[in-house]
């Protein structure tokens, strides 16, 4: 006998492990045990096999690897005796899961055991099959399971029924084979069989419309009768739980009636009486009774309308909501969310109670209640509800503030009756929890502020006060900085006072102080500091008296470790010092931002910009179609190659001039309009309302600057003024002057410079399609630019949309950020994303790519995968 | 369609004809996300965790990889063990709900879908605990440690494929006892030949 395998008993091993004082000791014990088990495995030792497997299962539970024991399970299962099989199947279920290929080897043993004469061995096999069956096994063993549904012993029949659930879920095609056997099982008296047959019936109905129709016709009446009997049955100690006879069976019956009654008036009629009886007669002082009532309410809500029953259901929920038990309140909130679409008025009556639940000490209840509140808000109650929520924001837990602010912001945004109220509420939220809000929230606030021209003065003064008191909330600081930069003059001169405001005196120096403080605060990040610099630049023109002081502050950032700040500092310094004539026009007030465009962009619902075959290398990130309002364009757009003047909407000015990532989250390098040239950068900068007469000199200025100085700096200065995104988009170009004056030269990439490739449908299923459009830069045939555009033909919106791709080693893949992560339904809108693929074996191998698309549909994670190997050749 | 693509993927991966340089993110995510494809059982998994965070029993009815399993256990014990005594027995987690109940030093947890009946699952937990209690005679944590396989056998008589199998405690007790006596009988038979197997099955 092998000296290692004599080993210890299971009990002794567990004792030894429990006696370990440290993790290292435990590891040592486990290592020793594993070594002896391995030795036994390799010796193919029979005597201790099941003891070893039991040990392995314990070791597995502690989290150690035990894959070497998998074959032992199979050997034990193949053994003839019951004890070996019992532990073998347990090991199989514990150590393996359906994804392991080893599992295929067990199919044959399972088949034999399903036909075994010992009913307990049949039971073991059914249990294992039900818990870990893969699709292949389900297909192979379905006939055996189907036969076992008629086995003489009820305990085997019930196991076979649950096993069938697994089978039809793995292989829905097999569903029809089970319909008839289930119909006869539903007539049985044995509770276990009934319980499992109902469950199987419900799953069949989910999978197959035909099965649903069949059961609805044949079984509704019978099931109603079974429920009646169950409810009215005399005391049965075997099934009794706190005075209720078999609540599990009642709950399942209510559930199957819900499925059968949903959308069918006749079937619903049949069950009205018994539902009313359950709803009124069930005791609600114990959990089991409440579980039944809860299920009953859900069934009443789902079946076809019957006014009386619904009132009953809503009353039960009202009772639940005022219950002291947290579990009951939780399920009440849960259920009210479903009830709201059926009887909104009735749910509104409980508003006060629900609002109290938002402030509960239990995180689960708070979360449910908040969801519910956001569904309850409408035009008439938005003001008091928002006030309550904002008041609560002050005292809420920090980890709840994130959820809470998101909800408040969406409520305020959706239902605000007037702009001043919106601005007030948002300011309160930002002051209270500015560190918890998402970027889109304060971006949206800025859009609203620019649109409310009569409130500019009011807002900037309110923000100035807010920044004094809540300077530690990043978001409020950013909005304040932006507004002070824009409307600093209104702040100092108290212009546009509203009646409700208290007058305040702020000097120009105070304003500059405020920004200086914000820019030097430790907690300020790059974005805030960059915004401070832009605001200072703007103020230097609004407050000529402070110009020198501002210049000093700006200069301090010349030594910043952050490249972005350093660059801005240098650029702005040079603008303040050398280009007085240019400055006032550069820092004009922002044009009013178009709310519709902005919200449209956020929702990603703008129609995709069809890309033309003009493979222009310069691709600006903001490729929204522009409207012509730029006379300068003609001056700069000297190139005859440009077929149509680029057009521009005000939205882009804001983005470009803001000089930070405002709005860019939605548009960053997203929808890319290929037909664009470097002139746009200038255009965006200079066309902010400057009179056309001066255009000539402006252009000259810029050109002379580029000659005066080091070309690179100046052009970058101008780019820097626009947006960091633009800068990065242009980085690939060798000559910055060329960027600027792209239009002068012949357009370097005419379509005939390289071969064109037809677009490729890279992925398509019933709802989602993905189209690749290809373009190549001349001179670098290895590099392919791919524009992927996604369309969603279903009626649902896909959120959290993520596209991923992988390529073989001879390819290099560069993915740019997508235009959005929300894909609206019905094909109205798309997401685009740029890919750049470099083929190191160009000419020898063609492209191949694996893709993975994940998104959320109704909060459910969805995943699509595919491989694309039909790329055009020569890519 | 998706299943088809997936199987093709597996084939590609197995044949190793093309070596894919996977994006790191894919390889990380692929572990957990396969579950999306698999149709859902009512109860996705059952966990027994001690108050110290030690795992006493795990049963997975939906496929989770080993890596994912230990992550789930870590996450959930962090969430559940820290909850106060008076709070409700449900936690929302990754779009699912975990229903838990504490018995002495042990937390019994079951993970269900958003729209399943939480109160019923509490009742199922209690059902299981009562059966354990009858079997061991006022069960304690030590019973479940040293006889963990028995706890599994009982669970297999209560749940299959994440669905409730039997609502009668008596029936479950009878079935488990019958199987235990089968094992005993086999043991005695073997003991008469040699006592080696008898030692091993203790």
TrEMBL record, chain B:
<dbReference type="GO" id="GO:0006886">
    <property type="term" value="P:intracellular protein transport"/>
</dbReference>
<keyword id="KW-0653">Protein transport</keyword>
<comment type="subunit">
    <text>Adaptor protein complex 1 (AP-1) is a heterotetramer composed of two large adaptins (gamma-type subunit and beta-type subunit), a medium adaptin (mu-type subunit) and a small adaptin (sigma-type subunit).</text>
</comment>
<keyword id="KW-0472">Membrane</keyword>
<keyword id="KW-0813">Transport</keyword>
<dbReference type="InterPro" id="IPR016635">
    <property type="entry name" value="AP_complex_ssu"/>
</dbReference>
<dbReference type="Pfam" id="PF01217">
    <property type="entry name" value="Clat_adaptor_s"/>
</dbReference>
<protein>
    <recommendedName>
        <fullName>Adaptor AP-1 19 kDa protein</fullName>
    </recommendedName>
</protein>
<dbReference type="GO" id="GO:0030121">
    <property type="term" value="C:AP-1 adaptor complex"/>
</dbReference>
<dbReference type="GO" id="GO:0016192">
    <property type="term" value="P:vesicle-mediated transport"/>
</dbReference>
<dbReference type="GO" id="GO:0016482">
    <property type="term" value="P:cytosolic transport"/>
</dbReference>
<comment type="function">
    <text>Subunit of clathrin-associated adaptor protein complex 1 that plays a role in protein sorting at the trans-Golgi network and early endosomes (TGN/EE). The AP complexes mediate the recruitment of clathrin to membranes and the recognition of sorting signals within the cytosolic tails of transmembrane cargo molecules.</text>
</comment>
<comment type="similarity">
    <text>Belongs to the adaptor complexes small subunit family.</text>
</comment>
<dbReference type="GO" id="GO:0005829">
    <property type="term" value="C:cytosol"/>
</dbReference>
<dbReference type="InterPro" id="IPR022775">
    <property type="entry name" value="AP_mu_sigma_su"/>
</dbReference>
<dbReference type="InterPro" id="IPR011012">
    <property type="entry name" value="Longin-like_dom_sf"/>
</dbReference>
<feature type="domain" description="AP complex mu/sigma subunit">
    <location>
        <begin position="42"/>
        <end position="181"/>
    </location>
</feature>
<dbReference type="GO" id="GO:0035615">
    <property type="term" value="F:clathrin adaptor activity"/>
</dbReference>
<keyword id="KW-0968">Cytoplasmic vesicle</keyword>
<keyword id="KW-0333">Golgi apparatus</keyword>
<dbReference type="InterPro" id="IPR044733">
    <property type="entry name" value="AP1_sigma"/>
</dbReference>
<dbReference type="InterPro" id="IPR000804">
    <property type="entry name" value="Clathrin_sm-chain_CS"/>
</dbReference>
């Amino acid at each position: 006998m092998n000296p290692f395998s004599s080993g210890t008993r299971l009990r002794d091993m567990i004792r030894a492990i429990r006696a370990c004082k440290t993790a290292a000791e435990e590891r040592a014990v486990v290592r020793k045990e594993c070594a002896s088990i391995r030795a036994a495995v390799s010796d193919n030792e029979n005597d201790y096999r099941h003891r070893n497997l039991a040990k392995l299962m314990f070791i597995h539970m502690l989290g150690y690897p035990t894959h070497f024991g998998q074959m032992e399970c199979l050997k034990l299962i193949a053994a003839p005796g019951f004890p070996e099989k019992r532990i073998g199947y347990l090991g199989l279920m514990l150590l393996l899961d359906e994804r392991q290929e080893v599992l295929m080897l067990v199919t044959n043993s399972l088949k034999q055991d399903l036909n075994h004469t010992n009913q307990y061995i049949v039971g073991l096999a059914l249990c294992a099959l039900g818990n870990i069956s893969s699709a292949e096994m389900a297909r192979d063993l379905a006939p055996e399971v189907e036969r076992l549904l008629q086995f003489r012993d009820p305990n085997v029949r019930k196991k076979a029924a649950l096993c069938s659930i697994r089978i039809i879920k793995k292989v829905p095609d097999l569903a029809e084979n089970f319909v008839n056997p289930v119909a006869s099982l539903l007539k049985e008296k044995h509770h276990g069989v009934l319980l499992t047959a109902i469950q199987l019936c419900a799953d069949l109905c989910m999978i197959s419309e035909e099965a649903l129709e069949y059961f609805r016709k044949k079984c509704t009446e019978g099931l109603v009768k079974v429920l009646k009997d169950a409810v009215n049955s005399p005391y049965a100690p075997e099934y009794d739980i706190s005075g209720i006879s078999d609540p599990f069976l009642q709950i399942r019956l209510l559930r199957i009636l819900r499925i059968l009654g949903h959308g069918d008036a006749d079937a619903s009629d049949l069950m009205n009486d018994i539902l009313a009886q359950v709803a009124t007669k069930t005791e609600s002082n114990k959990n089991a009774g409440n579980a039944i009532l809860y299920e009953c309410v859900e069934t009443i809500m789902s079946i076809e309308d019957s006014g009386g029953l619904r009132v009953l259901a809503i009353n039960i929920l009202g009772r639940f909501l005022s219950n002291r038990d947290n579990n009951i309140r939780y399920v009440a909130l849960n259920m009210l969310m479903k009830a709201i679409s059926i009887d909104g008025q009735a749910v509104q009556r409980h508003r006060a109670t629900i609002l109290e639940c938002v402030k509960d000490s239990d995180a689960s209840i708070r979360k449910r209640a908040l969801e519910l509140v956001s569904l309850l808000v409408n035009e008439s109650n938005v003001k008091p509800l928002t006030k309550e929520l904002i008041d609560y924001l002050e005292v809420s837990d920090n980890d709840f503030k994130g959820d809470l602010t998101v909800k408040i912001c969406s409520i305020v945004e959706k239902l605000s009756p007037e702009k001043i109220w919106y601005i007030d509420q948002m300011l309160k939220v930002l002051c209270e929890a500015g560190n918890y809000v998402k970027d889109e929230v304060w971006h949206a606030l800025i859009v609203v502020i620019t649109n409310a021209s009569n409130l500019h003065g009011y807002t900037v003064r309110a923000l100035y006060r807010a920044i004094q008191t809540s300077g530690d909330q990043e978001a409020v600081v950013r909005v304040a900085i932006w507004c002070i930069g824009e409307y600093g003059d209104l702040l100092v001169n108290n212009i546009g006072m509203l009646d409700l405001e208290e007058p305040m005196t702020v000097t120009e120096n105070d304003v500059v102080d405020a920004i200086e403080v914000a820019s030097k605060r430790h907690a300020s990040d790059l974005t805030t500091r960059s915004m401070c610099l832009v605001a200072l630049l703007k103020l230097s023109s609004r407050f000529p008296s402070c110009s020198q002081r501002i210049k000093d502050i700006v200069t301090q950032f010349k030594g910043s470790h952050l490249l972005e700040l350093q660059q801005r500092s240098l650029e702005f310094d040079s603008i303040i010092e050398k280009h007085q004539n240019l400055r006032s026009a550069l820092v004009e007030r922002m044009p009013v931002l178009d709310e519709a465009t902005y919200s449209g962009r956020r929702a990603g619902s703008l129609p995709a910009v069809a890309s033309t075959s003009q493979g222009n290398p310069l691709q600006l990130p903001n490729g929204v179609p522009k409207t012509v309002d730029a006379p300068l364009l003609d001056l700069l757009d000297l190139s005859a190659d440009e077929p149509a003047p680029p057009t521009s909407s005000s939205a882009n000015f804001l983005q470009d001039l803001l000089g930070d990532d405002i709005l860019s989250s939605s548009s960053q390098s997203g929808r890319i309009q290929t037909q664009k040239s470097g002139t746009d950068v200038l255009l965006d900068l200079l066309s902010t309302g400057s009179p056309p007469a001066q255009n000539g000199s402006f252009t000259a200025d810029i050109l002379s600057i580029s000659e005066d100085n080091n070309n690179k700096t100046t052009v970058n200065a101008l780019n820097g003024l626009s947006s960091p995104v633009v800068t990065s988009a242009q980085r690939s170009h060798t000559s910055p002057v060329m960027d600027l004056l792209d239009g002068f030269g012949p357009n370097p990439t005419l379509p005939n410079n390289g071969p064109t490739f037809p677009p490729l449908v890279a992925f398509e299923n019933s709802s989602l399609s993905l189209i690749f459009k290809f373009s190549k830069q001349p001179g670098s045939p290895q590099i392919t630019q791919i524009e992927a555009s996604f369309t969603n033909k279903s009626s649902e919106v896909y959120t959290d949309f993520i596209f991923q791709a992988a390529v073989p080693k001879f390819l290099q893949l560069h993915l740019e950020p997508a235009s959005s992560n929300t894909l609206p339904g019905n094909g109205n809108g798309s997401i685009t994303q740029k890919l750049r693929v470099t083929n190191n074996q160009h000419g020898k191998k063609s492209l191949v790519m694996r893709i993975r698309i994940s998104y959320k549909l109704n909060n459910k994670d969805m995943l699509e995968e595919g491989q694309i190997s039909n790329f055009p050749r020569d890519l | 369609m998706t299943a088809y693509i997936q199987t093709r993927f597996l084939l590609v991966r197995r044949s190793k004809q093309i070596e894919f340089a996977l994006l790191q993110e894919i390889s990380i995510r692929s572990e957990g996300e396969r579950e999306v494809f698999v149709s859902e059982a009512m109860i996705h998994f059952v966990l027994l965790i001690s108050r110290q965070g030690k795992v006493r029993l795990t049963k997975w009815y939906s496929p989770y990889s080993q890596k994912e399993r230990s992550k789930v256990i870590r996450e959930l014990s962090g969430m559940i063990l820290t909850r106060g005594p008076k709070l409700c027995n449900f936690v929302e987690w990754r779009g699912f709900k975990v229903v838990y109940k504490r018995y002495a030093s042990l937390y019994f947890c079951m993970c269900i879908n958003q729209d399943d009946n939480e109160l019923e699952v509490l009742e199922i937990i209690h059902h299981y605990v009562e059966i354990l209690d009858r079997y061991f005679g006022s069960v304690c944590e030590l019973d479940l440690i040293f006889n963990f396989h028995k706890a599994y056998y009982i669970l297999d008589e209560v749940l299959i494929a994440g669905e409730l199998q039997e609502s009668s405690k008596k029936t479950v007790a009878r079935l488990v006892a019958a199987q235990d006596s089968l094992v005993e009988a086999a043991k005695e038979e073997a003991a008469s030949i040699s006592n080696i197997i008898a030692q091993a099955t203790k």
